[in-house]
Design a protein that fits this description.
124 residues; alpha+beta; Alpha-Beta Plaits; four-stranded antiparallel β-sheet; 26% strand; elongated; binds adenosine-5'-triphosphate; binds magnesium ion
Amino acid sequence: MIKVEAIVREDRLEDVKDALRAVDVRGITVSQVMGCGTQLGYTHRVRGGKAVMNMLPKAKFEIVVSDEEWAERTVNAIVKAAYTGEPGDGKVFWYPIDHAVRIRTGERDVEAITPAPNPVVEEE
Ligand SMILES: Nc1ncnc2c1ncn2[C@@H]1O[C@H](COP(=O)(O)OP(=O)(O)OP(=O)(O)O)[C@@H](O)[C@H]1O
Ligand SMILES: [Mg+2]
């Protein structure tokens, strides 16, 4: 299994969500986070001195998928939907993870993240 973690512009949240829906990714965690990248939160560096860090609001997506193929599809969808070409577009990280459990059924690992054969109608 692979965990895809993406930090994107807040105003791209809906676009990224729609792009993930379009490639049929199921199971997403989204958080409002603060952060900065290589410009330390500024697009224009102050001259001289050491700039303080300016944390900017961002949206973070966390998605666990079953294999490399799904990871590639997920990463590509995020990059396409989050791109503006300006500094601050964000980053995507992905890395292997070992375990998962679906609490309702006790299913483990890949079984825990594939759609259940008898999906409940609604999450509660
Ligand atoms: N190395 C990192 N580790 C953790 N989070 C990061 C890292 N780099 C960027 N981020 C997160 O991504 C957000 C956006 O980063 P950003 O796109 O500005 O990266 P960048 O490397 O400065 O690229 P760019 O030059 O395009 O701005 C940051 O606010 C931070 O939350
Ligand atoms: Mg930056």
